[in-house]
Specification:
The chain has helices at 2-13, 40-43, 54-62, 90-97, 114-120, 124-135, 158-179, 205-222, and strands at residues 32-38, 66-70, 102-106, 143-148, 182-185, 229-238, 241-252, 260-264, 270-271, 276-281, 285-292, 298-307, 319-320, 326-327, 331-334, 340-342, 352-357, 361-363, 368-370, 379-386, 392-401, 414-416, 419-421, 425-428, 434-436, 444-449, 453-455, 461-462, 471-478, 484-493. By secondary structure, the protein is of the alpha+beta class. The protein has 4 domains: 31-222, Rossmann fold; 229-307, Immunoglobulin-like (Sandwich), CATH 2.60.40; 319-401, Immunoglobulins (Immunoglobulin-like, Sandwich); 414-493, Immunoglobulins (Immunoglobulin-like), CATH 2.60.40.10. The strands form 6 sheets. Strands 6, 7, 8, 9, 10, 11 and 12 form a 7-stranded mixed beta sheet that branches. Helix 3 crosses helix 8 (205-222) and helix 6 packs across helix 7 (158-179).
């Protein structure tokens, strides 16, 4: 029954959305900015594409009122003093620069590895609190969700899972209470989901759907604000968007009635009233309301006010084609399997961007990377730019996907003794273990090799190497565009 519910929700959210792109009387709403920090489970290791990872799947369920940025980095820890701290990654800096309105912290699994945990566990709470402080600097106060790590399966991960269950999870719960955060429980609901975690750590695409559903349930349960906008000398175009004549009046009256409210907006605007009226409106902008209930739980929403007849800086459509050439155009025909970048340009760079396109495509950034294109991704991509005064401008990009399928370059990688090497031939000592890690990520890999070796994982492992395991390992790659190609890695017994 749960699987059916998930599939129905995904079907519903895949239906086209009407935005009224060509109607200047209709504004584009400003989504709540959600940022995810985490490790490989969140980044999408084990998923066929970035769109298949649980943050992207959760965004599909939440709809276009939310925009999730996935800033996770594989292999990283909350520990500052580990060999792989998330703190030192470029994505951590990016996560803070995005100024999230909702922050999801999904770190801890790598910290719980016994060899790390036993020496650094006394630093976990202080490091966690320090990260929260950094996101709250400068008067910022995002709504925070902390994630309890998913279970680790199999005997090889038993010791690490024991740390997760007996030490890490109780500590994260303690932290959540201390900082006033919501909890997303990825542990108990997935305790029997070992089939969706084929390598015992990372979810496959089906597992990511389960995690997305859990995140969606928690966020929608907590984010309860019901918007209401009324306009005098103007027109109500959307429940979170008001198009008003210059000098007009706008009233926000969101619900629930009970609880406390805080408002922020352009030019230092603030209020502690639930019902807010803007009189003699000369300029628009984004107004954010935060509701706090009687037990301290917070909900957040953005309202956009635009002055009728005013437009933001015009957009110049620019596209990077499959040959990585930049072209000033809004129309492109390309082959299936290729990657292109849609990059709108404006003179004013201080506003925000939103996108909508085929198959409920939605994004909240300027440059859009369309990877491994398929014919189903062809169509019109509409971008909206919103400046600081709430004025908007729009442009359309038209993408055709036709012709022969183009396969990506297959790049071999071998990990031995903890070091990755880009090679397709390697001498291996008897008794050594190794793993493959070829690129690209966004596709399926099937391996066959000597001594009956088979694997359906991109990072296939060969353990206790010997003469019977020497020879050619053939990896067959397929992707959504219809590409099918082979990569051969040759392992030789080192004498």
């Amino acid at each position: 029954m749960k699987i059916i519910k998930i599939l129905l929700l995904l079907l519903i959210t895949s239906l086209p959305i009407a935005y009224g792109y060509n109607n200047p009387e209709i504004g584009t709403q400003q989504p709540i900015r959600i940022v995810c920090v985490g490790n490989s489970i969140t980044e999408g290791f084990g998923n066929t594409s970035e769109e298949a990872a649980w943050p992207a799947q959760a965004n599909k369920l939440l709809g276009n009122r939310y925009a999730i940025s996935n800033c996770a980095v594989s292999g990283t820890t909350m520990f500052k003093n580990s060999n792989a701290p998330y703190w030192k990654t470029e994505r951590y800096a990016k996560a803070k620069s995005l100024n999230p309105q909702i922050l999801i912290i999904a770190l801890g699994t790598n910290d719980a590895d016994p060899w790390r945990w036993n020496s650094l566990k006394n630093e976990f709470k202080s490091d966690y609190l320090d990260m929260v402080k950094e996101f709250r600097q400068g008067g910022k106060d995002p709504v925070i969700y902390v994630c309890l790590p998913p279970p680790l399966f199999g005997p090889q991960k038993a010791a690490q899972n024991t740390v997760v269950e007996n030490e890490l999870i109780p500590l994260i719960k303690e932290i959540a209470e201390e900082i006033g955060a919501y909890i997303i429980d990825y542990h108990q609901p997935l305790i029997n989901a070992n089939k969706q975690f084929p390598d015992n750590v990372h979810p496959d695409d089906a597992g990511a759907v389960l995690m997305a559903q859990i995140a969606y349930d928690h966020i929608k349960k907590a984010q309860i604000i019901e918007p209401h906008v009324s306009v005098k000398k103007g027109k109500v175009s959307d429940e979170t968007v008001a198009i008003v004549k210059e000098g007009g009046r706008v009233t926000f009256a969101p619900k629930p009635i009970n609880g406390t409210w805080t408002w922020t907006g352009p030019n230092g605007f603030s209020s502690n009233n639930r019902v807010v009226t803007l009189k003699n409106v000369k300029n628009g902008g984004i107004y954010t309301a935060v509701h706090t209930n009687n037990i301290g739980q917070r909900s957040i929403i953005n309202f956009l006010v635009s002055i009728k007849g005013r437009e933001a800086s015009p957009i110049t459509p620019t596209i990077q084609n499959k040959n990585r050439e930049w072209i000033k155009t809004n129309t492109l025909s390309t082959n299936p399997g290729t990657t292109i970048i849609l990059s709108p340009q404006t003179k004013d760079e201080n506003g925000t961007w939103t996108w909508a396109g085929p198959n409920s495509f939605f994004a909240c950034k300027r440059d859009i990377h369309l990877d491994t294109l398929t014919p189903t991704q062809a169509g019109e991509y509409v971008v909206t730019y919103t400046d600081k005064e709430g004025s908007q401008s729009r442009s359309s990009f038209f993408v055709k996907v036709e012709g022969e399928v183009v396969c990506p370059d297959l790049i071999p990688f071998i990990n031995i003794n903890g070091k990755w090497q880009s090679t397709d031939v390697m001498e291996v000592k008897e008794g050594q273990s190794l793993s493959f890690g070829p690129h690209p990520f966004n596709g399926e890999w099937i391996w066959k090799g000597p001594d009956g070796f088979t694997s359906d994982r991109r990072e296939a492992s060969v353990s206790n190497f010997n003469s019977q395991k020497a020879g050619e390992y053939i990896g067959t790659f397929t992707n959504a565009a219809g590409c099918k190609a082979e990569l051969i890695i040759t392992l030789k017994l080192k004498k």
